[in-house]
Amino acid sequence: EYMFRGISQTDDHPAIQAGAGYSWSNGLYVGAWAWNLDFGDDTDDEADTFAGWNGHLSAAVKLDVQLVRYNYVGEPDGVDYAYNELIGKLSFAENYSATLGYTNDFLATETDSIYVAVGGSWEVGNDINLTAGLGYTTVDEDLSSEDGYLDYSIGVNRDFGPVNIGLGYTGTDSSGENLFGEDNAEDKFVLTFAIGG
């Protein structure tokens, strides 16, 4: 299932994802990702494009800044879901990260939104990695009476040859359910299989 910040994008159905990118020695990179979707209308797929830079600020701190364009395929007539987001991510002490995102067009509603998140990844033995994350999305009052919502996740994953298999538990608080519906924002387990880096 394709989960984005605690919200299901595929209505409890499986998702297939693929991506490709190219980077230069100076830290600049470009790329694209694609997923199938189920919004309950004619929208079939999401095809995101991005460009950014990453590099070390110090021996222990790495910065990644990217501009993402969220594009959607098969939108109903008169509907345009596409929007842009600027995202910065700091990675530090090998295991931890902090993310800050900003868009002035949240979900193509001309609404300002800020996303802040912290996360971590730790090896716990037997080649098993434990991951955890906590995020908060602010939502302008023009979109909803809610000020924002909290999302969270915890999971484990392990490499089996070229395939990484992960099992995660993710969800949102009641504000997420009020904004996006209980079915899309409820707590759930997600099983993932990933090939490549």
Protein model, in words:
With 197 residues, the protein is mainly beta. The protein has 2 helices and 14 strands. The strands form 2 sheets. Strands 3, 4, 5, 6, 7, 8, 9, 10, 11, 12, 13 and 14 form a 12-stranded antiparallel beta sheet that branches. The longest helix is centred in the last third of the chain and has 7 residues. It is globular, with a radius of gyration of 17 Å. The relative contact order is 0.13.
Gist of the model:
By secondary structure, the chain is mainly β.
State the helicity in percent bands: under 10%
Order of helices and strands: EEEEEEEEEEEEEHHE
Task: Describe the largest sheet.
Answer: 12 strands, antiparallel
Alpha-beta classification: mainly beta
Distance between the termini: 19 Å
**What is the CA-atom radius of gyration, in angstroms?**
17 Å
* Count of extended strands: 14
What general form does the structure show?
globular
Number of helices: 2
Give average pLDDT, whole number.
92
Q: Which residue ranges are poorly predicted, with pLDDT under 50 across at least 5 consecutive positions?
A: none
Strand content of the residues, in percent?
Answer: over 45%
Name the descriptors.
197 residues, mainly beta, twelve-stranded antiparallel sheet, two-stranded antiparallel sheet
Task: Give the SSE layout.
Elements: E1 3-4, E2 7-8, E3 17-23, E4 28-36, E5 45-56, E6 61-70, E7 72-73, E8 83-92, E9 96-103, E10 113-125, E11 128-138, E12 148-160, E13 163-172, H1 174-180, H2 182-185, E14 188-195
